Amino acid sequence: MPNSSPYLQTLSVDGKNYQYYSLATLAGVYDLSRLPFAAKLLLENLLRHSEQPFVQPDDISTLAKWDVLNTVATEIAFVPSRVVLQDFTGVPAVVDLAAMRDAMVALGGSPQKINPLKPVELVIDHSVMVDFFAQKDAFSKNTAKEVERNKERYQFLRWGQNALDNFKVVPPGKGIVHQVNLEYLARVVFIDPLTQGSSSAGMLYPDTLVGTDSHTTMINGLGVLGWGVGGIEAEAAMLGQPVTMLIPEVVGMEITGNLPAGTTATDLVLTITEKLRQFGVVGKFVEFFGEGIKHLTLADRATIANMAPEYGATCGLFPLDEQTVTYLKLTGRDEHQIEVIKAYAQAQGMWGSAAQQTAAYHATLSLKLNDVVSSIAGPKRPQDRIALTDAASQFKHWLSQQEKLLIATDDPEKGRFENEGGQQTSPNDEKSLQALCDYNGQQFSLKDGAVVIAAITSCTNTSNPSVLVAAGLVARKARALGLSVKPWVKTSFAPGSQVVTEYLDKAKLTDDLEAMGFHLVGYGCTTCIGNSGPLPEPISKAIRAAKLNVSAVLSGNRNFEGRIHADVKANYLASPPLVVAYALAGNMDIDLVNEPLGTSKDGKPVYMRDIWPTNDEIQQLVTQVVNSEMFSERYAHIFEGDECWNSLQVVDSAQYNWPDSTYVKKPTFFAGMSLKPEPQTTIKDARCLLKLGDSVTTDHISPAGSIAPDGPAAEYLREQGVEEQDFNSFGSRRGNHEVMMRGTFANIRLKNQLAPGTEGGWTRFQPSGEQMSVFAAAMEYQRQNIPCIVIAGKEYGTGSSRDWAAKGPLLLGVKVVLAESYERIHRSNLIGMGILPLQFNSGQNAASLKLDGTEQYTIEPIILGQQEVEVSVKKDRARFNFKARIRIDTPNEFSYFSHGGILQYVLRSLN
């Protein structure tokens, strides 16, 4: 970083002098008090990189003016300070780094030149499943099974941990990435050492990040700007490349008042999620300010920030203030670092909610904490909040709708509502709504609404001691009164940090939770991402035989249809103490406010109010049992694994040895790569692989979910000797391009207009018109050296920015995508993989140009700054041309494209 920059100033903290890029240097020209906190962070980022070619002076002036009345879509570069990964989405990123090392050697360079240029931390948290529960050794058994299932992936990650600089791995069983990030990894303000001999103690700049998980936003509760991105953006950030983004619209939410007694941070976040979803904040930044946030602990703020994806925002940012300092001290951060953070924030006008009071927001909402009531959300969306007082009636209404649907659609021979005489019975007939079940030495009737999963899980709530202590106190009081969890409930406890179990042990609440079946099952993402594990076989059989509408209650952040468990139709988000209460009740049709949960050992009815702790009880216990020493002790060895992890055999070398594996395989992105980029050549006589309509999402393009037993990916796995029961999911096999390319464009809901009457990964090979799988056609085109094109409608590539939505098409031989419009990040990802994104000119599309996908397409090479390109079309003997827009929007993007992709660009620049 140049010492001559006009933006550099000196800040003195505790007798040490630091340099920093000061926003105050712009204060004489711009009114910076109008900028929200997030805009100030983005502006500092531009100042710090102002001498890089991807930052223009107009970018700085446009952002500094902050004109919310005349919003113009302006792209800026954002260079995050670090990257966080979880194992599902992180493995392919590390696979690419390993392959880049091999390519670097092939080009005559040293493999050690390929390392993340920014700090990268990967936390293994997405692979543990709840196979064992309600037993003392559930944690050790689940962890052992996790390592056994994922041995090949974990061996690879251990190699990366040893071989790569700037890359650290948190082994399995340590915690959830977002909670580990909050409690330990976050710097808040970076202190980078300067060159030897400098009089400055270092360079200060904000801790900003991107992560390969949508709930990366949890760190916003600590005043750190970050959000989730796709794998290609994460890899670019790892390698020092900027993330391009539009200057965001920022919505301010003013918080006032205090939470009422008996309500929790979970109730608050469900209320905020409902309110912001109704307003509409998709793609926008949200900032929280106002007197009320002073009463929200850092853990409360993190709970709210975590669910930014659920309310649709890019991020949900809180200010840096005294609550931040209190939390940093609690979690054992260095005292001088804390002083630096406060001094830096004050110098930059980023300190406290008061700094946001004068900010100009694109819109402002308000929320009174006093209006928050006990709530749950469901049965299938996080934003569908239900006041607890209405939960039973709302569930019964939902159930009646399900029953009407079954009556209308059920097979008469297998009808759920059919008596022995073959006549339809009323859905109110109790016999038709239950099934006898023998399990674990008990016999009981399983009914509609039965809570078969009760899970205290996920980073959202297990970062918050108040709700976990509350859950423990509910369990303690229920146990003292002689209540027990219903025998059909699969209970589990999967906290996001090892600190949680330590303070629960210290509070002597662990025994009470275990008495209710909430034994520790693992430290990781479980029920929330569908890793709830199998239900006991008798329970599962009963549900399926009687077609019961059963429920799950979890303290997570997502409850989408089919996500939690295949047998469970109704899924509800709730606070940890409410999860315990519903496990005791055993059914969603109970009015927890007015009906008893059960009967005490002396025969009296017990209501939820009898076991619900007061706010004072919770706070007193939290104060007694949570201290900084436990954070310091637990995180002292966070990167060290247990015996299972340490016993994994790994190659000790700068290059990965790529052992035979169906999980991790060397990709072919760099095959035949030369030291200089090959000149562009004409894309000649390309064939259309798929012709698609509007709103094709990355879910349609990218492989996800289970691997269908009759598809190309399954055929490949069988050829490798993998049995069907061991197929696992596309998510677990993201490190094997052979599996992933076979699952590209194979979504069962994809409609390819080239293969009318079909759904899924089908196309017609041209010119013969033979119908075959997309993969088979792509391989035949490649064998004949014929390039491919994809034609699409509006909003191509919407949804999650999955890396394989761009990597997969590349491996299938797609050179060009021609669409009516693009989702911004997917367009960028296509360029990042060397695929040319073209756009129909206004008023034109495939229909108006009479393109049916049977044609041949020729496109000449493009040059920097070119806006349009001629597309030559040949069909039988007919010939015609039309012009299409080139959607390579910046010089940086053209550099990536001309090198064949962003990874090739970085490889050559590092050689």
From TrEMBL:
Any one GO molecular-function label of the UniProt entry: aconitate hydratase activity
InterPro entries: AcnA_IRP_Swivel, Acnase/IPM_dHydase_lsu_aba_1/3, Acoase/IPM_deHydtase_lsu_aba, Aconitase/3IPM_dehydase_swvl, Aconitase/IRP2, Aconitase_4Fe-4S_BS, Aconitase_4Fe-4S_dom, AconitaseA/IPMdHydase_ssu_swvl
Domain Aconitase/3-isopropylmalate dehydratase large subunit alpha/beta/alpha: 74-586
Record-given protein name: Aconitate hydratase
Organism lineage string: Bacteria, Pseudomonadati, Pseudomonadota, Gammaproteobacteria, Alteromonadales
Organism listed in the record: Paraglaciecola hydrolytica
Domain Aconitase A/isopropylmalate dehydratase small subunit swivel: 714-841
Gene name as annotated: acnA
Function summary: Catalyzes the isomerization of citrate to isocitrate via cis-aconitate.
Entry keyword Cytoplasm: no
Gene3D superfamilies per record: 6.10.190.10, Aconitase, domain 3, Aconitase, domain 4
